[in-house]
Amino acid sequence: MPANGAVSLGVDGRSNSFVTLAADGDRVAAVWLASSDSGNDVFVAMSDDGGARFAAPVRVNDLPGDAAGNGEQPPRVVLHDRTVAVVWISKRQGVSGVRAAQSADGGRSFSAARTISPEGVTGARGWESVAIADDGMVHAAWLDGRNAAPMAADHHDHGVMRQDIVHAMWRAGEPVVESPVADNVCFCCKTGVVTHGRDVFVVWRHLFEGGVRDIAVARSADGGRTFGSPVRVSADNWKIDACPDDGPSLAVEGNGTLHVAWPTLLSDSGQPHMAIFETISMDGGATFTARARVDASTTGASHPRMAVSRDGVRAIVWDEAAAAGRQAMIRVAGGDARTLAGGGTSYPAIAPTPEGFVVGWNEQAGGRPVVGVRRVGP
Question: Is residue 326 a contact partner of residue 319, using CB atoms and an 8 Å limit?
Fold first, then answer.
């Protein structure tokens, strides 16, 4: 069984990993990737009691094996009333695309999947995120390599690594409307998207001048049709000639306060290591407060995800190095960091509920990867 009395989620006979969570009141959705020799599928399990118990998993993708992913690009899920929307990465016939399916009956069944990224484009696509607005519009953001230069014969042409970030929105049965967000961004870090009224915010790791890879946010004030220029969240000035594979997380309060959590390199102890920081914006993403440290690790903290409750309580989860392997951590409302689960747990996920938060992570149980999920108080 998973640690700390958590619920174990998985499909028998498969490797189960890369969980994400969403909640609407006491209704919780957990989505993950279930892998076997025959391929990868996306499964969702629903809870009506804040994550204490879950119904049997339901496969989301209608084409067997039509999924791909990893810790930085897991399948993503959102809830609104009885609507459950899931997006994931597909690599059919060797071409990457962003796929989506929707349930109108609370996750009991799903519509046929649709490709929400354009058909016939080249390059990589992935590192997707998703949100759902109060009007039922689904919003997604992802990294897209359709504008990358052709690969050079000597593989030293840096243009081949170009990724742009794009946004798309749709409702069930309606066409997908796509809009550009920013060009030439860092190419292997997860993205984030949230909505607040007519505002849509997207966060990613941007590629600034001189090879600096810091976090940026862009705002759309017209429901996702156009986006303003990127705003740098914090001048970390992390210069690295590679992608760190470790991106930001984004959340918004009911009053519009925007929260960002992200990892970056820290060198204050003499030994460089990854650390987690957070900041807020109270003016619609135009400016951000000075960064504040979240973790207390001296050996490296990574893979943050953030959630904010309806009454403004924020919580951040991440994983960090420990003697027994990586362990999942949490910090709630500026309190002390504490361990969620140890012994080789990683890539934690979080969503807010009326009683606090529901959290999940990857771990090994009974000799195979499973997903652990449990509730934590505010």
Answer: yes
193-238 pLDDT per residue, tens: 999 999 999 999 999 999 999 999 999 999 999 999 999 999 999 9
Query: How do beta strands 212-220 and 231-232 pair?
Result: antiparallel
Q: 154: phi > 0 → left, psi -120 to 50 → alpha, else beta; which?
A: alpha
Q: What are phi and psi of 131, to 5 degrees?
A: -145, 165
From the number of C-beta atoms within 10 Å of its C-beta (0-12, 13-18, 19+), residue 321 rates as middle
157 pLDDT band, cuts 50/70/90, is very low
The dihedral sign for the CA sequence 272, 230, 140, 251? positive
Q: What is the 3-state secondary structure (H, E, C) of 363-374?
A: EEECCEEEEEEE
pLDDT of res. 146: 94
At 152 the pLDDT is 40
Answer whether 256's CB lies under 8 Å from 196's CB: yes
